[in-house]
Design brief:
The chain is α/β, with parallel strands linked by helices and 190 residues long. Helices cover 60% and strands 14% of the residues. It has 9 helices and 5 strands, in the order βαβαααβαβαααβα. It has a 5-stranded parallel β-sheet. The longest helix has 15 residues. It binds adenosine-5'-diphosphate. Adenosine-5'-diphosphate binds next to helix 2 and helix 3. The site of adenosine-5'-diphosphate has 18 residues, from helix 2 and helix 3.
């Protein structure tokens, strides 16, 4: 089983690339953002709980995310691999993920970080706001999400560097070029 974590700030292009990687390798793509947005749009109890938090650009609680991920691994017990997109986002989530994967007997294989400068990120997110109408893509909320990233998620870089799992790929260019760079790193790691 190959467990890939796609890492990077909001707007780095994780979602786009995760879909392509999962398709090519026949792995299961898990986007916690998509899972949460689906709960919100269906108005489930979980969705009602997280709606305001997400719209403010804050992080949903570790407890909820861990619960979600546990059910993901149960649901896809036969998967050949996973592309995790948007999880883990805090040190606590990363540690809990390690515990879950230990139980499955397949640790994290690779953490691939998409490197994109902050100015480009904000431009992309503002553009997406117009195209997709996501409620958390307003300028104010984008700023918040970047702050959350710097504060809570960036420390994961050191966590995975220590485990020698962290690799970077330049995330600016055509979708296909970036995908090629990612694919090369994955091939080297397998
Ligand atoms: P982004 O474009 O910021 O990568 P996502 O679609 O991954 O956006 O996530 C959207 C929102 O969903 C986040 O701002 C956060 O509120 C919530 N969320 C998604 N994944 C997590 C997570 N692992 N931990 C906490 N909150 C999360």
């Amino acid at each position: 089983m190959f467990n890939l974590i796609l890492f990077g700030p909001p707007g780095a292009g994780k979602g786009t690339q995760a879909i392509k990687i999962a398709e090519k390798n026949n792995w299961v793509h898990i986007s916690t953002g998509d899972i949460l947005r689906a709960e919100v749009s269906q108005g489930t109890p979980l969705g009602l709980k997280v709606k305001a938090v997400m719209e403010a650009g804050h992080l949903v609680s570790d407890e909820l995310l861990i619960e979600i991920m546990e059910s993901v691994f149960v649901k896809h017990a036969a998967a050949k691999g996973f592309v995790l997109d948007g999880f883990p986002r805090t040190l606590n989530q990363a540690q809990e993920l390690d515990k879950m994967l230990l139980k499955l007997g397949h640790p994290v294989s690779l953490v691939l970080s998409l490197e994109v400068n902050e100015e480009e990120l904000v431009n992309r997110l503002l553009k997406r706001a117009i195209e997709q109408g996501r409620k958390d893509d307003t300028e104010e909320v984008i700023k918040n999400r970047l702050v959350q990233y710097h504060h809570h998620t960036k420390p994961l870089i050191d966590y995975y560097k220590e485990k020698k799992l962290f690799k970077e790929v330049y995330g600016v260019g055509t979708m296909d070029d970036i995908f090629l760079s990612i694919s090369k790193v994955i091939e080297k790691t397998r």
